[in-house]
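Bumping with the actual sequence this time:
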Amino acid sequence: MYRLFRRRIALFLSLSLIVSLIVPVGSSAFADNEIPPVQSAAPELVTLVSQGGESLEFTDINVAGDTVEGKNDYLALYTSGATVTGSVYKDEVWVPTLHVAVSVDASGIVQNVVGPNGDPPTSWDPGTLLPIPVGGYVVVAGGTHAWDQSVFQKPLFNHNKTGDTVKLMRAGEEVTAADFLPEQPGPGPGPDPLPPELHLITQTDTTVDIPVIEIAGFVANYAADQDLSVTVNGDETAITAEGMFRTNVYLEPGPNKAEVKLFKGDGELAVQTLNIVYEPIENQDYIEVEAAPKDITIDIEGPRKKLDYVDKDVTGVPNIVAIFTRDYGNSITIPQTNVAVQVDANNRVLRVINPSINGKPPVWTGPTELEIPEGGYVLMAQDNSYAGNNIKRYLAENFKVGDMIKRSGSGTRHHERQWSYCTAHAG
């Protein structure tokens, strides 16, 4: 019996030794060998450095509009080619009024500045779609803070002017828009395309004192192969590759309606109606210029624009189209960021300064000393936002060398008048 007891004790000790080798006592060995979780590196700060050396640090980069909506203060960067998730825009950024925005081309040159008329502001540019230059970027400063409380709006506006050279810096090195391009996904089926949507930039319930208004908007999620079309008061208007459309509607005194419809084939997808009131100013003279028709087989009339000044110095006057004859002088200096059209005595375009090529913003050159032809004239446009206003863009996109153009005045749109009539009746 004693031998049996010794055998059982030996068996028990052997089993205990085996178990201790397989399962370590306690948890300290497991903790020592446990792999700690990988810590994600903090994103590197990106800054905008102005021509004078002032630096602003971005709070958001290539984010959708609803991400910054409601923030107290932000500085957002939108780079060319970086699709914004959840955004209806491809190559453009919506800049609300009371915000400051700067567009910069691939060479680091400031192309446009959108925002107030000065510091302190007394008026602001309306909300606008600001194109992102190819290879460049757009910077937007906004938020709910007032002008004097914002960390970003005032310095962005004051330190970055059209024509300035600026740069992006990250971790002490200069970067470009290409450095923010997302990684290309592998092959595979993409998500179903979003349905097209009709958006209007022109606001309803608007009162004007001239007999014409530009109806502008865009089709979100637009694709050329979708058989989409837009009509304004029943007339089809051209849609750009980005889904933008613009057209003039001529008004009668009193209430007017502009009905904008979006079609897919023959099917109506959406309709919006704008209410516009035209209240003529008593004894107001109205002079306009008419560009050559885009397609004479479709329409014998070209796009028109009101002339604001005749033979007057317009230095510093924003958002105008002016006309200059030999009564002003033999020549006129066209600033680098203005657009001008030289026209001979037969109303034929001789030269365009800073034209648009294939619908793209001009490659700005100048200043240019431009002769005023004998018996002819020079049209010059200047504004504070090429993308947001159809002023410089009107001359840049609609006038080509060799075009025949028209002038008319006193509200009579279809009767061409001699220039002596127009100058006699111009404010």
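The tokens above came from a reply further down the thread. The chain has three domains: 46-180, 197-278, 287-424.
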